[in-house]
Amino acid sequence: MVDAIRNAPWLTFFPDNYLWSFNAAMEMSLARAGGSDPGEVDRVIRALEGDTGDNMRWYAEWKAMGDQVLAIAGKAESEGRALSASAAYKRASNYYFAAERFYFPKDEESSATYRQVVECFRRATDLDPRVRVEHVDIAYEGSSLPAFFVPAPGAAEHPAPVVIFMNGFDGNKEMNWYLATEELLARGISVLALDSPGVGEAIRFRDIPLRHDYEVAASAALDWLESRSDVDSDRIGVMALSLGGYYAARSASMEHRLKACVSWGAIWDYHRIWRERIEAAFAKQLPVPGAHLVWSTGTTSTDEALGVLEGFRLDGVIQQMRCPFLLVHGEDDQQVPVADAHAMFEACGSEDKTIRVFSNEEGGAQHCHIDNLSIAVPFITDWLASKLGGSVSGRA
């Protein structure tokens, strides 16, 4: 049984279940960039009342909403209304992802649902003439990491800075579109959104598990970017959220071709975080079911998974970072204590480093600021533009 929510009055959807409330709030928040519609999210939440904690009911209701919105997208496309179809395909993609996140053990049905995540998002981007999205594969240790690349306006004529945008423990590259991709493009920064090891398609379809030495994935992405004529290879940064706060910081500490780093949420000692969760019989605040840990690490038990997490500590690593560093965290983050953010920031070896802790009073105090993305995302993307040479004003 997941702990009831402690001090977060904004999380009122399922007050006795943090996991469900956090994910419902996230679905609501993604409406700001077209990942959902508040009315559709509200209908799912209402349908789930009385079934809190039944993850297969969660799956069924979110999948049903995905199916409903997919039908809307297909009808709009058949009638030649490309932009309307694109918007609906994006929402369908995200609802299928919301459904599949809680589905364990993974099987053929969950895989089929996740393929809808990928296919709907690709169809959405193909139908939108306002942006050019390239769906690509990044060579990686005899396999490849799925990604999409979006060049900033004018990058073909004037090579642009780029942000390698990774998600976290349980996110995916498609979610990154709704979180900050459009804001980065508006500031003249191209985006490479990556399903890194243990994440998204990489774990589901290519059996690439989570690993602690994340600079291997970052180096692969850098090699790919440096081959492009529309990329300014001297202005490549990295950003990632949640557990990605570790991915980004580890990558920038070990791979000095990166010129800026944003940890969107602190991760100081991920082994300790999960040890405490396991010792509490998974009663602490979780972003996804506890089974995700064993599955994403490619192991067979929690003990074995904890062994993989031994390397997920930044002490002794982040001291080696040299590029500008931004760490953002929430004052009332119920998954990772704010004390970890201060420890991580103090240890960082960069001379140019900034920490921003969002408070309950202003909003953005929850994990990865899911309670107020509209205050946190502009702060993050403005900082990246100032360090990589983008445009805070939006003008070229």
UniProtKB/TrEMBL annotation:
SUPFAM superfamilies: alpha/beta-Hydrolases. The keyword Hydrolase applies. Keywords: Hydrolase. It comes from the Bacteria. It holds the Pfam family FrsA-like. InterPro entries: AB_hydrolase_fold (IPR029058), FrsA-like (IPR010520), FrsA_esterase (IPR050261). Belongs to the AB hydrolase superfamily. This is Prolyl oligopeptidase family serine peptidase. It comes from Pseudonocardia ailaonensis.
